[in-house]
Design goal:
The chain is mainly alpha-helical. It is 52% helix and 0% strand.
Length: 160
C-alpha cells in the first residue's frame, strides 16, 4: 500500500479472510489486466480497465449507496477498522497508530470515539458485574466483643 502523505510503500497486516477474498478477485480478473509486482492490485470493472484509484472507489461507493439507500464511505471503513482494532485489549494502541500511518498518537485517538450502543453495552455489563460481586460478597463475622444480633438491629438488617 502507498501511504497517503509520504507516498511510501508500506506492508500492512490483513485478516486471513481478506486474502481469501483477494485471491477470488484475482482469479476473476485473471487474463483481463496486466500482472506483476509493479501493477496495481485493484482495477476498475468497466472497460477499458484502469487502476482503481481513490476517486473511482469513491464513485463505486456512491453507486452502491444509491442502490442500498445508505451513506457508507471509504473513510467510514477506516474509522470502523481503527475502532475495532483499538477495542481489542491484546492490540496496543501504538500498533493501531502504525497501521493507520499516524505520526502522533493523538491523531489515532480521533478515530476512537465510541459508539453510543457500545458505551451502553459496556456500562450495563459493568453494573451487572457490580451486582454480581455484591451478591457474592460474604458479610464478615463480627469483631470479637460484638453481637451479630445487635449489629443487625443497629444497621436495620433482617434476621438471617
Amino acid at each position: 500500500m502507498l501511504r497517503k502523505g509520504s507516498r511510501e510503500a508500506q506492508e500492512l497486516p490483513a485478516s486471513p479472510d481478506a486474502f481469501v477474498w483477494l485471491r477470488l478477485y484475482q482469479l476473476e480478473i485473471e487474463g483481463l489486466v496486466a500482472k506483476g509486482r509493479r501493477q496495481p492490485v485493484f482495477w476498475t470493472l468497466r472497460r477499458p480497465f484502469r487502476p482503481l484509484n481513490y476517486q473511482a472507489a469513491h464513485r463505486m461507493f456512491a453507486r452502491a449507496n444509491d442502490l442500498a439507500g445508505t451513506s457508507a464511505s471509504l473513510h467510514a471503513l477506516r474509522h470502523t477498522a481503527a475502532y475495532r482494532m483499538a477495542e481489542d485489549p491484546a492490540l496496543p494502541l501504538t500498533d493501531v497508530q502504525w497501521v493507520l500511518g499516524h505520526a502522533r498518537l493523538s491523531t489515532t485517538q480521533v478515530y476512537l470515539t465510541p459508539r453510543k450502543e457500545d458505551v451502553v453495552r459496556r456500562v450495563l455489563a459493568h453494573y451487572g458485574d457490580q451486582v454480581r460481586q455484591a451478591t457474592e460478597r460474604r458479610v464478615p463475622p463480627p469483631a470479637p466483643g460484638y453481637s451479630q444480633e445487635s449489629l443487625d438491629v443497629l444497621f436495620e438488617r433482617a434476621a438471617r
